[in-house]
From TrEMBL:
Listed name of the protein: Expansin-B4-like
Domain of life of the native organism: Eukaryota
Signal peptide: 1-29
PANTHER family linked: EXPANSIN-B2-RELATED, EXPANSIN-B3
Phylogenetic lineage: Eukaryota, Viridiplantae, Streptophyta, Embryophyta, Tracheophyta
InterPro entries: Expan_Lol_pI, Expansin/allergen_DPBB_dom, Expansin_CBD, Expansin_CBD_sf, LolPI, RlpA-like_DPBB, RlpA-like_sf
């Protein structure tokens, strides 16, 4: 009886291993597109309720409790905004946070998610019932409906929705500082808007010209922050450092407030998160 030589054994063993490896790869591999879809579908959505207020095709109130003023109507907010109850507004610390919301239970729902920014506080009945209540602008509420059914959909009153926190994304937009009309050489106050990422702020600090010390500003109301100035020690140009509520990442807008700053003016930085 003849037996296979050692080289023949090696060839047989290599062939078997190659076939086994091919079978294993075929059975265990999943197309990346399928993995991505599965992950997207399983992202958690939390229950909330939604209503709408003011103009049916408007931006809610003009600025509301966050102090953004007419900017809520224009890009990058573009009226896709919402007032929030206390769990969303957070005493003003929730101003600027972004949320994805979707409705599926109403026949007029498009079931397509939209993203809104918290720009106002929802008072009164928003404190009752569901722990999270979005009082959407008429524009945002209508965007939840199927094409051509926005007006009918707005008649639904209060609806159940799903929501989740998402990163704010304002392409080609940098953080802007709007100086309060009451500011003066001894008092500086500004509204801060268009922050990417977290969108909200927990800490704002000011550094005067010629200093390496960061002075903490106080939240005045909504997205408005203030500080008392003591000239000549605290003089412009001012740099401002921002720290969001959750991520605690920091961003510095160097010399964003110029020497000749004036109340009522807006100053756009060169940076964003």
């Amino acid at each position: 009886m003849s037996y296979p030589s050692i080289p023949q054994y090696s060839f047989y063993l290599f062939t078997i291993l190659a076939i086994f490896s091919l079978l294993l790869k075929t059975c265990t591999s999943v197309p990346s597109k399928l993995v991505n879809v599965s992950m997207a579908e399983t992202d958690p959505l939390l229950p909330a309720v939604a209503t709408w207020y003011e103009d049916p095709a408007g931006a809610g109130s003009d600025g509301g409790a966050c102090g953004y003023g007419n900017d809520v109507r224009n890009p990058p907010f573009s009226a896709m905004v919402s007032a929030g109850n206390s769990n969303l507004f957070k005493g003003g610390k929730g101003c600027g946070a972004c949320y994805q919301v979707i409705c599926k239970e109403n026949l007029a729902c498009s079931e397509v998610p939209i993203t809104v920014t918290i720009t106002d506080e929802c008072p009164g009945t928003c404190g009752d019932g569901a722990p999270f209540h979005f009082d959407l602008s008429g524009t945002a509420f209508g965007a939840l409906a199927k094409p051509g059914q926005a007006d009918l959909f707005r008649g639904a009153g209060i609806i159940n929705i799903g929501y989740k926190r998402v990163s704010c994304n304002y392409p080609q937009t940098t953080v802007t500082f709007k100086i309060d009309a009451g500011s003066n050489p001894s008092y500086f106050s500004c509204v801060i808007e268009f922050e990417n990422g977290d969108g909200d702020l927990d800490l704002v600090e000011l550094r005067p010209s010629g200093s390496d010390q960061w002075l903490p500003m106080k939240q005045s109301w909504g997205a408005n922050w203030k500080i008392d100035l003591v000239p000549p020690q605290v003089i412009a140009p001012f740099s401002i450092r921002l720290t969001p509520l959750d991520s605690k990442k920091t961003l510095i807008a160097e010399n964003v407030i110029p020497v000749d700053w004036a109340p009522g003016k807006s100053y756009r930085s060169l940076v964003n998160f």
